């Protein structure tokens, strides 16, 4: 486990410590060893380009006539941070370029998949070769076997896996499977944890729902959520009470082992261990939604990092290398309930398509290289320590934390143990900070209630430039 675990996870505190000198040398990963990235640093004598989003504004105004809110996913509309949403043109490495020509250091990473950097040359080359054979078969392909073997060998809980096309689809499938296997219908989820937009999960779901300040969602029948029980995250006593009040009827507990959809919130000591025990004692299944944390906190995900093995796991993002993908897997006896092996039906035309499998295979190969997770640990530590220090120095209430390539910070003194704590954040101040960072060439998640992500393509220069930008913006908000 990471030497920084004591600063973020084991101890319930948020001001993290710097890594030891034994951390991997950043030069070994500079620019990911694959491509050169144009740095957005101007010389002293060079006049800084005026920041404008005119073309983005024109494109977004047109988009609002074509798509609900002008977007295909709500948080992209910038409702919680204000200002003009950005329309992007291209990505490479740690950088994104918008249609106005502005360049940004990216800490969203397509919401997690870009762990080796955007548009990696080897991944693109492999995709080009695969595309020559076709983009979708709607039938078995050998690449499914290859990626399945890689996932099974990496993730402790997975003995069999089923590929789907998104994290939402994976969570839909795993919930149905848990109910089918146990013969029970109730499920416990945690406030602020997001498991996709399927009806049963839109109960205190955090993420985009919280960002927009909406009720969980109209259009969801009461019957769809009547069997969904909720508890605050990091609160085992409430979980125990739920089991006591619903004896013999709870199929599963599902959670993000590290919350990423209410901001970055790690588990307190023994929380995951207690959940593992209470599910065993009550004949329920423990499900880790590792769509964000899978292959990001460690090669075996959060379950390897924390040493807690669930019964079932959902995956996405990283295992598709930037292409649409999802997966659910777990113990063989449970997974054999899935059709056609068993009676629990789930299907998908594009599931296991050759392009997503190819991108996933080559992304995971890159993560297997020695030092990958040490490097993520090093740069993310420097980033979050720098941002928190700069904020405190400027007199702001701020706390933050990280694990490997995942991080977050809140405009509150903290610590933050659950969604209620997160909601104490000064979201108006976050919006001002966010817009200021955009003008300084830094792209963060456009919501206080979303985690951020680093990649192997981020350099020490990227981190220092980001911290310098934060110092400047903190002085103005």
UniProtKB/TrEMBL annotation:
It catalyses: (S)-4-amino-5-oxopentanoate = 5-aminolevulinate. GO terms for biological process: porphyrin-containing compound biosynthetic process. It is an enzyme of class 5 (isomerase). Keywords: Isomerase, Porphyrin biosynthesis, Pyridoxal phosphate. One of its GO terms (molecular function) is pyridoxal phosphate binding. Its cofactor is pyridoxal 5'-phosphate. Its EC number is 5.4.3.8. InterPro entries: 4pyrrol_synth_GluAld_NH2Trfase, Aminotrans_3, Aminotrans_3_PPA_site, PyrdxlP-dep_Trfase, PyrdxlP-dep_Trfase_major, PyrdxlP-dep_Trfase_small. GO terms for cellular component: chloroplast. It holds the Pfam family Aminotran_3. Pathway: Porphyrin-containing compound metabolism; protoporphyrin-IX biosynthesis; 5-aminolevulinate from L-glutamyl-tRNA(Glu): step 2/2; Porphyrin-containing compound metabolism; chlorophyll biosynthesis. Gene3D superfamilies: Aspartate Aminotransferase, domain 1 (3.90.1150.10), Type I PLP-dependent aspartate aminotransferase-like (Major domain) (3.40.640.10). Transmembrane segments: none annotated. Belongs to the class-III pyridoxal-phosphate-dependent aminotransferase family. HemL subfamily. HAMAP family: HemL_aminotrans_3. Homodimer. This is glutamate-1-semialdehyde 2,1-aminomutase.
